[in-house]
Amino acid sequence: MNKRKRALWGFIIGDAYGVPMEFMERDTFKVDDMIGYGCWDVPAGTWSDDSAMTLITIEHLIHDTSIADLKQAFCDWAFRGYWTYNDEPSFDVGLTISEVLNRWEKNGPFEQAKTDEKSNGNGALMRILPIALYSYKRSIEERYVKDYATLTHGHIRSTLCCMHYTYVVHHLMDGMTFAQSLENANKQLLPLLNEYPNEKPNFERIFSINELTRDDINSNGYVIHTLEAVYWSMLNSSSYYDTIFNAVHLGSDTDTVAAIAGGLAGIYYDELNVPEDWMELIPKRDEIDKLLDRFVKVIF
Length: 300
Ligand SMILES: [Mg+2]
What we know:
With 300 residues, this protein is mainly alpha-helical.
């Protein structure tokens, strides 16, 4: 498996592993297997909104469809079971995404995402990995990432988090260590933060992530907290499995944190060291694998 494909499978496996423990409090559980049920009534291996919106974005990039078509595909996912694990409408749609999808469904794709500060959940960050991989070596990242991030999350903070993650993805693709990737991403974000000085204090935690202990880390659905949980998990792990294990055991938004961290760990480590039977539990495994193969061919 090459780095790009490993990143995307790493993302999906992280999502599926974390789904049953979503919303659970830190240190109230220990799970070292792909289990089912838990907080959502779904079988083991079920992936959620994070993977679905990621796969739909991949399909959009492969076929070079319009943004209106991409928005339509997101609506088809939420309301009609397009790219869900069981072909039923999605069991899990975040609040901000649900709000904008409802307006697209009702009024059409010209409706814009909300731009208020409260609309800073992790719903753009959780579907940005294909954009980060596609923009690698294409010198289009700033504009491109912003265009995709703001489809569902119009506030600049969400876009800045997507940018930072994209920079980290690119440095890992270049073969840097995670610590180096983080340091370089911090440097690259600074000029952007200078354009939005009010946002600077929000990124202090990301910039000082090396100094934060597990107890300091938040891991909920607020985009800054998700990003800090992702980076902390990467910094404090030594394999792919270790990374998603640590991510899930932070509690709260377990599936999204493990998915986003799993995407980075999939690039960074040479193998996804999870048992083969985990892969066998993933619904639509072959369909996903074929899609990822096509995507990898398109983005090279
Ligand atoms: Mg999810």
